[in-house]
Amino acid sequence: MTSGRIHGHVLSPRSGGGLRWEPDSALSWSDGLLLDAAGAGELALSEAGLLLVPGLIDAHVHMPQYRVRGRFQDALLPWLREHIWPEEARFSDRPYREAVAAEFRDGMLAAGTTAALVWGSPHDESAHAVLNDLAPVCVRGGDVLMDRNSPPELTRSTEDGLRSAAEHTSQYGARYALTPRFVPTCTTELLRGLGRIAAGSDVLVQTHLAENLDEVAWVAQLHPDARSYLDVYDQAGLLGPRTVLAHCIHLDEVDLQRLADTRTWIAHCPTSNVALGSGRMPLERVLAAGVRVALGTDVGAGPELSMLDVMACFLDMQAAVPGVRPTLALELATLAGAQAMGEGARRGTLESGRAADLVALRLPGGLRRGETPDEVLARVLDAFAGRWEDAVAAVFIGGQRVT
Ligand SMILES: [Zn+2]
Predict the structure, then answer these.
(1) DSSP assignment string, 159-209
(2) Which domains, ranges and CATH numbers included, belong to the chain?
(3) pLDDT tens, residue by residue, 204-254
(4) Predicted TM-score (pTM) of this structure
(5) How far is the CA of 296 from the centre of ligand 1 (A)?
(6) Staple 13 to which of 318, 329, 331, 374, CB 3.0 to 4.6 Å?
(7) 246 CA → ligand 1 middle, Å
(8) 402 Cα to the center of ligand 1, angstroms
(9) Neighbours of ion ligand 1 (CB under 5 A)
């Protein structure tokens, strides 16, 4: 059913700023797009008293880590070597890859995630799995590139990596994301080659930056001439409004200003940062510098695919930062994610003309008299902590019910 109607309490960021908050209202759609006014389309769901929010958007998630999510005994570098790289190596096997892709897609849909910026494995064909096997979730992403300091089965030569990145760029265009894992596993030659591809196309770029102090020290050792870790990406031409950098915990003011000037995005992944003991991203400094932020699960370091889990952790971790409140968490998990992945004009809010991507959340006991949107959201997050899928009554993508 690509036309339909659903009743509930409508809560959404607006693309021009502010909130849409309409208790006891309805949303209607036709041909998969939201309509201006509540129409008479067929009722898509009869459950009453639901909180209707935009489809949740995960700005940073690793598909091949899905089965090993939550194994976080170690810090970043040993965790990568012991848990993550052996699992990613299994993705050269097509049946294994396809089985995990199906589980991963179903997990996202159950969590209310309708769009995501997804990382594949370090195999050429993994780009096709990410971009073809996860429908109906709206996905952008690509295969991981590593050409040094990596196990042989996950290492591609610089030439092979650049050739396959160029092929995927011409095949998928703006849906594809150049995905160098991080500076320690990517030569300057590879990064600069990717910078040239990015400059000549409309692909996205996604990578990691400054998650952990050992990693930052390793980069300083590998690149003694660079001003900072960020500077290595900058010199390679990899910053800009179509670039999304995960973590960004250990940055100085010059780095933050450079991110703001280039309109580069940060994917803030609080549940992952807690799991790996990476520290707190300094949100107050990031916002003061004017850097744009979206939220991500970073599964498998993050233990859950639920963006509700990430929102709750964000509110807890960043509670002391002025302006942090539940509706800001919702905005970062919807509209900001859509903008970061280049879908800001089509998704991320419940406004007419946008894709009818929405999540109907259960609100225990219904709406209370005079309750504010922040209070309503806080109550949902509190009531379903640790059993996030129970919060999700239904999920629609382009007006089609998928959960
Ligand atoms: Zn990651």
Answers:
(1) HHHHHHHHHHHHHHGGGBEEEE--GGGS-HHHHHHHHHHHHTS--EEEEEE
(2) 4-54+350-401 (2.30.40.10), 56-340 (3.20.20.140)
(3) 999 999 999 999 999 999 999 999 999 999 999 999 999 999 999 999 999
(4) 0.97
(5) 9
(6) 331
(7) 6
(8) 26
(9) 246, 298
